Sequence to fold (255 residues):
Amino acid sequence: MKTVVNFRDLGGIKTKDGRFVKPKKLLRSAELVNVSEEDKKSLLEEYQLHQIVDFRGRHEALERPNDFFDGVKSLQIDVMCDTQKNMSDIAQMIKNLKPGFADNFMKEVNHQLVTMSSAIAGFRQFLQVCTVQKEGAILFHCAAGKDRTGFAAALLLKIFDVDDTIIYEDYLETVHQRKVANEKLLEQFRQKGMTPEQLEALRMMMSVKQVYLEHAFMTIDERYGSFFGYLKNVLQISTEEIETLKMLYLDKTIV
Fold:
């Protein structure tokens, strides 16, 4: 995609038992703003896009509303609405930029993605939407397509029993996918007088590190005992729903 930042298809990712995620079924990206007609056509015709799930908050969606896709259902799930801080508004973070802040902040975001009530309810709803998406593709996104979206993708891949190494590879692909967009944003802040130290902290916050997602998984193990304990007892996803997800999105071959 030329105008959809941080876009990728989870299709083709291999599970531990030798199956593959079906192509053109599960798509992830950043916000769908100023999408070219060419990319819209590709999403609608090549990928048969049927459902969009937007993890952004109300203020984000109002400030930068997604483009319209004819015939495509759209659902907004604000997984971070319970936080007292706006975790995705860069302008609100600038005052706190200092050494060590970025890493700690991003670990806290990932901690909240597995413990906050709105995140628990939101990711439960997301997975349940995935269980009924029998035709075409579902595209899930947030603003940058890295944290909320990154955790949602990892959640699905964990359910599919994909090796952690591969899950982290998909997560870290954001570093490359967002490089151009992030440099443009950093240049804007550089011109506004942000110091090199602040810019480096901001660069870290606009990207991802493996330790951020690791922190989410560590929190799951510490709080809930195991990933499947979290899945069944916290997200309340049943064994039947897990099997439905695997049936819908996994195959023995890549078509």
